[in-house]
């Protein structure tokens, strides 16, 4: 198995690159999807969140009220740390299981782990488990504009989201490959295609 860690700041175009690599045949594992799965109703993760943050973050149907929780954690760094302490271990366990399943199905699989918090994980030195780290990068102004235009956030909300993540400098410091997504969609996809062509191919 060849394991790629794919990361980038919010609205950087990371998902576009991940989907393109999946079209080429990579196994795409999305950390955001896993993060939702570990807090579904009935999970220990959701129970722990309700205990820590109170009933206001639980929707009437018993699911996690993401808007209510988001309003808390984006305004309070300590709350964000507490949430990460609940979700990250569960996500890590699920991720390792999916990696093992992908390798079992195809020992030569190229797996793309699409993970916004790769830099945060690297502080625990988890990033050494990757064969290649790819950072999708766009300027702060480009990402703020995308958040406003595509997600309907106010400028203040967009800046808050960016400030809650690692800096571009921290992400670029661990990059083996950087994809510049400041340009057009086509330009970003061409870089993703070039990346795919550069990856090692096993002798079958």
UniProtKB/TrEMBL annotation:
Example GO BP: coenzyme A biosynthetic process
Binding of ATP, residues: 11-16
Reaction catalyzed: 3'-dephospho-CoA + ATP = ADP + CoA + H(+)
One GO term describing the cellular component: cytoplasm
Primary subcellular site in the record, as a coarse category: cytoplasm
Record keywords, A-Z: ATP-binding, Coenzyme A biosynthesis, Cytoplasm, Kinase, Nucleotide-binding, Transferase
Similarity-based family: Belongs to the CoaE family.
Function: Catalyzes the phosphorylation of the 3'-hydroxyl group of dephosphocoenzyme A to form coenzyme A.
NCBIfam families: dephospho-CoA kinase, PRK03333.1
Protein name: Dephospho-CoA kinase
Species assigned in the record: Lacisediminihabitans profunda
Gene behind the chain: coaE
């Amino acid at each position: 198995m060849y394991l790629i860690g794919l990361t980038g700041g919010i609205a950087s175009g990371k998902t576009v690159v991940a989907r393109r690599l999946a079209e080429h045949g990579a196994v795409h594992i999305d950390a955001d999807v896993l993060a939702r799965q570990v807090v579904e109703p009935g999970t220990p993760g959701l129970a722990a969140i309700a205990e820590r943050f109170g009933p206001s973050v639980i929707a009437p149907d018993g699911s996690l009220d993401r808007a209510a929780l988001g309003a808390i954690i984006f305004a309070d760094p300590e709350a964000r740390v507490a949430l990460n302490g609940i979700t990250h271990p569960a996500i890590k366990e699920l991720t390792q299981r999916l990696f093992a399943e992908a390798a079992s199905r195809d020992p030569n699989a190229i797996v793309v782990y699409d993970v916004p918090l790769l830099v945060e994980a690297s502080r625990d030195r988890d990033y050494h488990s990757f064969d290649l780290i790819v950072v999708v990068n766009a300027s702060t102004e480009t990402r703020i504009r995308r958040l406003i235009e595509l997600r309907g956030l106010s400028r203040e909300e967009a800046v808050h989201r960016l400030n809650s993540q690692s800096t571009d400098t921290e992400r670029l410091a661990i990059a083996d490959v950087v994809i510049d997504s400041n340009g057009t969609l086509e330009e970003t996809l061409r870089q993703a295609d070039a990346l795919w062509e550069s990856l090692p191919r096993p002798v079958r």
